[in-house]
Design goal:
Elements (H helix, E strand, L loop, with lengths): L5 E7 L2 E8 L1 E6 L2 E6 L5 E4 L3 E6 L4 E13 L3 E10 L6 H16 L7 H18 L2
Parallel strand pairs: 1-8
Antiparallel strand pairs: 1-2, 3-4, 3-6, 5-7, 6-7, 7-8
Helix pairs in contact: 1-2
């Protein structure tokens, strides 16, 4: 593990979700899975639904990061998250219901169903359930 830390700030629509100095962060983008250490090149990225893994000095934290944008500068990394949840904050019943609804839409033979949107809803529900340990 690298010895150098960098500042990570995760800003959700209703609060500062996380702010601390860390060693590494891993998350999904529309181009694939990414891991970031200190001194990463500046860039911006679009978040894809997935597991967020934050490596601090003596622990690893995980959350469901479902959408948003990333900005990496020489000073810090900022995630502007449209949706992010710690495992203990995930409503398991709601996630299971969302999974069932999305599966029904995908398997429906009715016209007018936006399959891409239904598949994204299914992926979000599955990630929430995975992070919550269900």
């Amino acid at each position: 593990m690298a010895d150098k830390t960098f500042r990570l700030e995760i800003i959700a629509p209703d609060r500062i979700f996380y702010s601390n100095d860390i060693y590494m962060v891993e998350y999904n983008t529309v181009e694939g899975q990414v891991g970031v250490y200190a001194d990463h090149i500046p860039m911006t990225q679009i978040i894809a639904p997935g597991r967020l893994i934050i490596t601090e000095r003596n622990e690893e934290k995980q959350a469901a990061l479902l959408s948003g944008f990333v900005e990496i500068t020489s000073e810090k990394m900022t995630i502007l998250a449209e949706a992010v949840e710690w495992p203990q904050d995930i409503d398991i019943k709601r996630a299971e219901e969302a999974k069932i609804r999305a599966q029904r839409r995908i398997s429906s033979e009715q016209g007018g169903i936006d399959i891409g949107r239904a598949e994204l809803a299914l992926k979000r529900a599955l990630i929430r359930l995975e992070i919550a340990g269900k």
